[in-house]
Design brief:
With about 425 residues, the chain is of the alpha+beta class. Helices cover about 20% and strands about 35% of the residues.
């Protein structure tokens, strides 16, 4: 699933992660805040220059990344993904991203030095896109860049690693050496692009390569939540690779699309317009069953899809309340459908936030898949005839007014104006 405003999380996409593998040191054990910032810049500059020179000296890159993410605050979910990159300089390359979610999501990018093929597979959607480009164009694609952000591979895919690093860091502190399972490292802390806090560990051996990175971002969601991503790196030497490394089998039921990101964000849900509402039964937070087809011939059905961790979808609840009030008595049934989270997580959120209305639990994403929804937030309107009448993505004021307009049309009256 994708949050339209925080796509990074494939998966992303959607992608994208569990606790750190083999944590040798506690991330809470920080060095004194008085660490010399100027000395930190000098040391980071020295090591990133050496790292760039070393990587350029290699015939090829071969690195695997185990990434985890966690969201603190209410009902903090956790997830994991694995990323791998094999690249010959100015030649063929392969990038693979596997998100450990249900169903699993895989994004594979291969290039031959002239064209890049990107394939996406989440068990329901199998998509492929092709564009001219070389390894330098790998992160020019929005979906690829979003999935790599925070993984460290977004830096390693740059031609000028040192320049990219040093142009985006501030408040650099060198925290000395630290022992990790991978070996002795140099430990840094800094601000990245002025918006996230990063800790970085670079190998203290003769090959100064990334060993671990953590990146923490504060979410502007009114809940003071923080998203923390942890990446551990394993460097391999397996050149040359067999030719099939740089191929993708996209035969069969793969659908060709111009842009993976645009297709997934838009989704195929609008293709359901005119189709009958799925005969699916979901339970609410009190274990009462709700069969969606029971309203056919009786009421209009308004479904809001959301999760506790997708900021844009939780911000939508105020508008849901207004719609419920404005259309009270109009034979409109409102359901807030939680996507993929446990009953315990949702009940906790509802209790602590005072969320009102009926909340349905689509734990296995059965309804989401049936309606071909791939992004959040989204509102689906079911007419009295039992057919999908409209699908609205996003949470802008314009999006909300469109929902009001379509609800009013289904009820045969003028749309009430929003307070916003």
């Amino acid at each position: 699933m994708f949050d339209q405003y925080n796509l990074q999380r494939l998966l992303l996409l959607g992608l994208i992660i569990t606790a750190v593998m083999h944590p040798a040191i506690s991330l809470a054990q920080q060095a004194p805040a008085s660490a010399d910032t100027n000395a930190g810049i000098v040391e980071l500059d020295r090591l990133t220059r050496r790292m760039e020179a070393h990587l350029r000296s290699l015939p090829a890159l071969d690195v695997a990344v185990k990434q985890s993410w966690s969201l603190d605050g209410l009902s903090a979910p956790q997830g994991s993904c694995q990323l791998s990159l094999q690249a010959n300089h100015e030649g063929p390359f392969r990038l693979e991203i596997r998100a450990a979610q249900k169903p699993p999501v895989t994004i594979t990018c291969v290039g031959d030095g002239r064209q890049i093929t990107r394939a996406y597979d989440d068990g329901m959607h199998r998509l492929v896109s092709r564009r001219d480009g070389t390894f330098d164009d790998l992160t020019a694609d929005h979906l690829t860049a979003s999935c790599l952000a925070g993984s460290g591979l977004d830096i390693l895919c740059q031609t000028r690693i040192h320049q990219r690093m040093m142009s985006q860091v501030s408040q650099v502190q060198y925290l000395g050496t630290a022992a990790l399972p991978q070996g002795e490292t140099h430990h840094f802390r800094y601000r990245w692009e002025g918006s996230s806090d990063v800790e970085l560990w670079i190998s203290a051996s003769d090959t100064p390569l990334l060993t671990r990175q953590t990146r923490t971002v504060s979410l502007d969601d009114g809940k003071q939540q923080k998203l923390t991503m942890v990446s551990d790196y394993q460097w391999n030497r397996r050149d040359p690779w067999p030719p099939e490394t740089f191929r993708i089998d996209t035969t069969g039921d793969f659908v060709k699309v111009a842009d993976l990101y645009a297709y997934l964000l838009e989704g195929a849900a609008r293709g359901m317009i005119g189709q009958a509402v799925p005969a699916i039964t979901l339970r609410d937070t009190r274990d009462k069953e709700h069969e969606l087809t029971q309203y056919t011939g009786k009421s209009v059905l308004c479904l809001f899809f959301w999760t506790t961790w997708a900021t844009a979808s939780t911000q939508q609840k105020a508008e849901v309340y207004r719609l419920m009030d404005d259309f009270a008595g109009d034979a409109v049934v409102f359901y807030a459908v939680n996507v993929g989270e446990s009953k315990e997580t949702v009940v906790e959120f509802v209790k602590q936030t005072g969320f009102k209305g009926i909340v349905l639990l689509d734990v296995d994403q059965e309804l989401v898949h049936a309606l071909r929804i791939t992004s959040l937030p989204v509102c689906v309107l079911i007419g009295k005839d039992g057919k999908v009448s409209a699908v609205h993505l996003g949470n802008t004021e314009e999006d909300r007014e469109l929902v009001r307009r379509d609800l009013a049309a289904l009820r045969g009256r003028e749309a009430p104006k929003s307070d916003n």
